[in-house]
Specification:
heterotrimer; A alpha+beta (316); B alpha+beta (130); C alpha+beta (254); B: 130 residues; alpha+beta; five-stranded mixed beta barrel; 4 helices; C: alpha+beta; nine-stranded mixed β-barrel; 25% strand
Chain lengths: 316, 130, 254
């Protein structure tokens, strides 16, 4: 395989996406006059979750800086045979490299914009201590049972499923279905439907925890505001873990027919010393979206546990 | 050789649990067990979270071994027109990669081509589909 | 089954629906019997039912019938439902869990509470199944007030019920959803699978709308409840129970 850089088409995409933010195009609307979010959306972005420390308080790139930054991030780097990095299939062989998916332009230097340094706030001392204790325990028991593996390895949830929903390495796409009273948002990986009623109903009892929390939506003009509570507080090895009292607020705005501005705020004083907020844009793409039946095809967890048990047999 | 996913490290690097997802490969497959397999396809599983290609390989002693080769999620392949018929049973493949630590007949396919050298999927030189 | 009322406009199937039949235990007529394990007592036992198959029993080919019987014998560990695997079509419709239909002009999207399985029924831009999947590939159209869905591309790894009844990957299912009033649908599924059955056959049952205020169903992803069954034999034998066996039942070891 040869390395390649973003082609001219990629640069043109940057310019088109910038123009789309000018909101000079009418957005599509559903029969009841609400913005129509339906379709397939790419969440692929080169914007990092947290701002690189070297960028300090620089919150935005210029368009030229972004183009250069994106080109560098999208370069397909060849791995060297016989190195650890080569012990993997080629992402671009499978169409899974970010350069092979449409991307919106995000001029922010990080998805997180609050705190002002673009990085996660510190965890509370209690939460940090609990996390350290769990990490130490897991280091000793990582392959003892399926329940000790990471939640994504068990095919339960990925960290990026949230909410808040975040870009991830690949299969960075989402599907939206919208009716008069519901929005369904489904990320390609893990492909659980987030079924969001739009009537601002009360949350369910606090004793009910769900992997995705419990979400309720309400319109604020043309912006859909989704409030999620009822997180499980469970981790497996999921870090950072939200407490059962966490509240995530998401805002979906159709900036143009081709872009959704997605913003979120996490409030969890039991876990973080302050709230944190982030935003990025999703870019319209085409479907269909194909089934992601993770648990059904999960040879990997059997392989990992079998290998661990076999290794124990060999070392008395 | 193949592309590495720099983005995953950057975007997910500060969510340590997520970046560790790929450590499953490091713990399963051994950089010190590089291999090149020439085999005949017996079964293709274009599934998630990883695809698997099953091949019969005749080893140096003339014994036929059944290997399974781990690959990527097929969802982008489907979006680009690959179907379940794209790798017919009976196809001859060349697979370079690394073997499993536990010694089972399992490998991660770093590079997969048909016997005539054609890439099976995108081969790393495919233009982005946009 | 009551005759369907004529509709002047396309029916609105939006809402939360659920079947109310024990056919998920066994599609065929059956007496009450012990379940796959006696550990749960009467809670795990199978209630009787007249069956929901037109014509009585499933017309298996002889070899397929033997496989069905083998499935039945192994059902405690081999039933895909026990493993929290996506149930496929038509099983997803009559499992004892609700599902929600979201209807647009381009597609009808169904989310099932069980395993949070989903399927998209394309109402425009029909294409053939590019690959096999657990929930199949669905193309739909309206015939008067009946939603007709053609399902193909099933992977042959799903069962039809908890008694080991099954179809092959070559099965083609035709579903029909017909409203008979605002809160009731008649559901029919015709299964055409010459590899397994001597002729096509049809099952049918009513579907009932959840009529309470603010209907919704909560998350039932179920993987964590299947792990002991599926992977327990790979768990490290341990002298100390550092939560390895999930003693507090919270699905994680912490």
């Amino acid at each position: 395989m040869t390395s390649f850089t973003v082609r001219a088409a990629g640069l043109a995409l940057v310019l088109v996406s910038l123009h789309a933010g000018a909101q000079d195009e009418a957005i599509p609307r559903t029969g009841n006059g609400k913005p129509d979010f339906q379709g397939y959306w790419s969440m692929t972005t080169v914007t990092p979750f947290e701002r690189p420390v070297s960028l300090g308080d620089k919150a935005f790139f210029t368009p030229e800086e972004f183009a250069a930054f994106e080109a560098e991030r999208l370069e397909v780097e060849e791995t060297v045979q016989g190195t650890q990095a080569d012990v993997h299939y080629g992402f671009d062989d499978y169409g899974l490299h970010p350069s092979q998916n449409v991307r919106a332009t995000n001029l922010r230097t990080s998805i997180i914009y609050e705190p002002a340094n673009g990085r996660l706030p510190d965890m509370t001392p209690e939460a940090a201590a609990m996390r350290a204790e769990k990490q130490a325990w897991y280091a000793e028991h990582a392959t003892d049972s399926a329940k000790n593996r990471m939640l994504q390895e068990r095919c339960i949830v990925w960290p990026h499923n949230g909410p808040p929903m975040l870009p991830t390495g690949y299969n960075n796409n989402a599907k939206v279905i919208q009716t008069a009273d519901h929005l369904v948002f489904m990320q390609e990986m893990m492909q659980d439907p987030r079924i969001i009623p739009l009537d601002g109903r009360d949350p369910v009892a606090a004793s009910i925890g769900q992997w995705y929390g419990h979400s309720v939506g309400q319109w604020d003009g043309d912006t859909l505001v989704v409030t999620t509570t009822n997180f499980t507080g469970l981790t497996g090895r999921q870090i950072p873990t939200f407490s059962t009292d966490a509240v995530v607020t998401e805002r979906f705005t159709l900036e143009s027919p081709e872009t959704i501005l997605y913003q979120f705020t996490v409030e969890d004083p039991a876990t973080f010393v302050s709230h944190w907020s982030g935003e990025f844009r999703m870019q319209k793409t085409t479907g269909p979206m194909f089934e992601y039946a993770c648990h059904e095809g999960n040879y990997g967890i059997v392989d990992v546990l079998s290998a661990a048990r076999a290794a124990e047999q060999e070392t008395p | 050789m193949h592309s590495r996913l720099l983005i995953a490290t950057l975007v997910l690097g500060l969510l340590p649990a997520a970046s560790q997802a790929h450590h499953a490969f490091a713990s399963s497959f051994d950089v010190n067990l590089p291999l090149e397999l020439h085999g005949t396809v017996t079964r293709v599983e274009l599934i998630n979270p990883h695809s698997w290609i099953h091949i019969d390989v005749v080893n140096d002693e003339g014994v036929t071994e059944s290997w399974r080769i781990e690959g990527g999620s097929p969802n982008a392949l489907f979006r680009n027109g690959i179907t379940k018929n794209s790798i017919p049973v009976g196809s001859e493949l060349i697979i370079t990669g690394y073997g499993a630590r536990d010694g089972t007949l399992r490998a991660v396919g770093a590079n997969i081509t048909f016997a005539d050298g054609r890439p099976v999927f995108f081969g790393g030189t495919k233009a982005p589909e946009e | 089954m009551p005759a369907a009322a004529a509709a002047a406009t396309t029916p609105d199937l939006n809402g939360v629906w659920q079947a109310m039949t024990p056919a998920y235990w066994d599609l065929e007529p059956h007496a009450a019997r012990q379940g796959a394990t006696e550990i749960l007592g009467a809670i795990g036992a199978v209630p009787p039912h007249k069956g929901i198959i037109d014509g009585g029993t499933i017309p298996y080919l002889p070899e397929a019938l033997a496989r069905r019987d083998a499935n039945f014998a192994m059902r405690r560990t081999e039933d895909p439902e026990a493993k929290c695997f996506r149930p496929g079509v038509p099983r997803a419709t009559y499992m004892p869990y609700p599902f929600q239909i979201f209807q647009t002009d381009e597609e009808i999207f169904i989310a099932y509470q069980y395993a949070m399985a989903t399927r998209s029924i394309a109402m425009t831009d029909h294409m053939d199944a590019p690959f096999d999947s657990w929930m199949g590939w669905s193309n739909g159209h309206w015939e008067d007030n009946t939603l007709v869905v053609e399902v193909s591309g099933l992977n042959g790894q799903t069962w039809l019920d908890r008694a080991g009844n099954f179809t092959s990957a070559n099965a083609r299912i035709t579903e029909r959803y017909t409203p008979i009033d605002a809160d009731h649908l008649v559901y029919e599924a015709t299964i055409d699978d010459p590899d397994t059955f001597s002729r096509p056959w049809t099952l049918s049952l009513p579907l009932y709308r959840h009529i309470q205020d603010e209907p919704e169903f909560l998350e039932f992803k179920c993987v964590e409840f299947a792990e002991e069954l599926m992977y327990g034999h790979l768990t490290k034998p341990s002298d100390t129970d550092n939560g390895v066996n999930d003693a507090n039942g919270d699905s994680t070891n912490d």
